[in-house]
Amino acid sequence: MSDPGEMRISDADREAAAQRLHTAMGEGRITLAELEERLDAVYAAKTYSELRPPLADLPGAGEVVPMASATPAERAEPLQLRTDMGSLKREGDWRVPASLRLTSGMGSIHLDLTQATSVPNRIDVEVSVGMGEILIIVPEGATANVDGVRGSWGDIKSKVGSIPGGGPHLTVTGKAGMGSLTIRGPRTGWKAMFGT
Hints:
Layout: H1 11-26, H2 32-44, H3 48-51, H4 61-64, H5 72-76, E1 79-83, E2 87-90, E3 99-104, E4 108-112, E5 122-129, E6 133-137, E7 143-151, E8 155-158, E9 169-176, E10 180-184, H6 189-194
Parallel strand pairs: 1-3, 2-4, 3-5, 4-6, 5-9, 6-10, 7-9, 8-10
């Protein structure tokens, strides 16, 4: 099996790494000069092994750059879920892949990750929403970056943090036309009882 570190990275991987560097500068961990130098390295990187050094001495680097446990096969073939006018749901006990491609024309896709058997530390999600709806419910402590989603008339909402922490992190890219994309955590208390 080939070295996972030699896997080619995507634009979303570079943007996630760049965001972590900007956050690090805001936290006072690196200087502006260091930020510029490291950003040059991030945008020049072609593989995961080249992407790791600029982040190696920063907290949460392992959440931004996938570790060797993610095999090439897991990242090469995303799970594709598509609905034109109907509804599609995944909930309960299921295995969440490291890469998802979600397409909703006028229908709805609801994914609940809160009771899933296996949830990777890093999940790449590519969305395409026409006039439909995509809802992703993530476990407590999960984060999501939706900056890579282009919107026109639609709504793009993330109700969880965007900086990778100790839980799963979703990097979401794609487009939302006139529909909606929502990422939120599990309902608790009265919200869970009444579904609001």
